[in-house]
Amino acid sequence: MEAERARRFAFASRAGATPLRIARSEGVWLYTDEGRQILDASGGAIVVGIGHGRREVAEAYAREAERLAYAIPPFASEARVRLVERLVDSWLPRGLTRVGFTSGGSESVEAALRIARAHFVAAGQPKRWQVIGRDLSYHGTTFATLAVGGHTKRRKGFEPWLADLPKAPACYCYRCPLGRSLPGCDVACADGVEAAILRAGPENVAAVIAEPIGGSTAGALVPPDGYWPRLAEICKRHGVLLIADEVMTGFGRTGKRFAVDHWGVTPDILVGGKGLASGYAPMGGIFASESVVAPVIEQGQEFMFFTYSAHPASCAAAEKVLEILEREQLVERAARMGEILGKRLARLLDHPNVGDVRGRGLLWAVELVADKSSGTPFPAEAGLTAKIVAAGIAHGVFVYPGGVDPARDVISFGPPFTIAEDEIELLASRFEQALESALARVR
Length: 443
Ligand SMILES: Cc1ncc(COP(=O)(O)O)c(C=O)c1O
Hints:
Layout: H1 3-8, E1 22-26, E2 29-32, E3 37-40, H2 43-46, H3 55-67, H4 78-91, E4 96-102, H5 105-122, E5 130-134, H6 143-148, H7 152-155, E6 167-168, H8 188-200, E7 205-210, H9 227-237, E8 241-246, E9 269-272, H10 274-277, E10 284-289, H11 290-298, H12 312-327, H13 330-346, E11 354-360, E12 363-368, H14 384-395, E13 397-398, E14 400-404, E15 407-413, H15 421-442
Parallel strand pairs: 3-13, 5-6, 5-7, 7-8, 8-9
Antiparallel strand pairs: 1-2, 2-3, 4-10, 9-10, 11-12, 12-15, 14-15
Helix pairs in contact: 3-12, 4-12, 5-11, 8-9, 13-15, 14-15
The structure holds pyridoxal-5'-phosphate (PLP).
């Protein structure tokens, strides 16, 4: 594919840049048009769990597409029923037995917000409409999901369309927004969620939404151990639904099936996306308890679908992905390889511009700073993160950009769970080279 053709129809590419032209992918590798090999250190947008180039997923997709191109979501298809059974029997936290599908993360979060609201309307509590989100969070790019999210860069310019919803502080121990530190803080950030509920008035609050481990906004924000159990207790006490957004963390990414499993918490609604079909099909899901859905059903209310909800071929691809994850014990592998990746990245803490290294399983992030002792970031105009990503591609590794002030420059890592030890070493050494090249351009 010629550069001119690739550039011409890019929808709104940065400064008219030519997109990287990817011809194919295999394992943890992307291959460009010119045959260059790039290590996919972030599984795309932290999507690909089982690795690239799995023929059996492509075949499952093709078989189903041939058998049943499309059926409206209220109809049952064999592929969907099989996928639901596998999810409920083997994957979801116990108690989450109502399963809906969409085509991605944003749609799934939208659906979760809609079902939470529909629950309270049907249950005769129509005042409950507010949803508490958190700073430094991301839940999608539609207007409702931007509104509950705390990604200031992605919200910018759209504020007039975004409902003004309360935000609680992020769990961001490196720069604790409350100025506290572990262990003495007693997980005060969780109490920040309760404070937000009380400010809004619990009788007005439908739900709290949070990523169990913050994704790429500020980079792999792992909460203190007591955080999620406390959050669940607070929500329960105030009659508020707890929505865990596991679009990035779900389906093994953090070394457990779901990140909430690290703390034994079952939310009222869990949202999944990316890893569910591992990039092989556009797919997302919402998973709710019977008690969330019951009032809606009792009232005989419709819950409108998206046209491509529960698309048969996507369901077949997702089911095959889950089967592979189970058969090859890839969730356990994510935990194991994650330890190795984490240890290797932790060596970077000796670097004068690496402020923090954090993560769990195969979701890691490195935060860069200009001055380590004060934690001062590089100037925004330096564009350090973008320079690192570009240098990474030049050095043969794709790392995922993140960062929102005050976590200005963040690089995330989320390779396929199939990554081997020597590939982890290659990932880290190429990242180190990219970091030095980028720093040379901003110093
Ligand atoms: C936690 C979280 N929620 C929602 C989304 C939105 O998903 P999508 O881009 O598939 O719409 C993302 C995407 O990165 C995410 O990380």
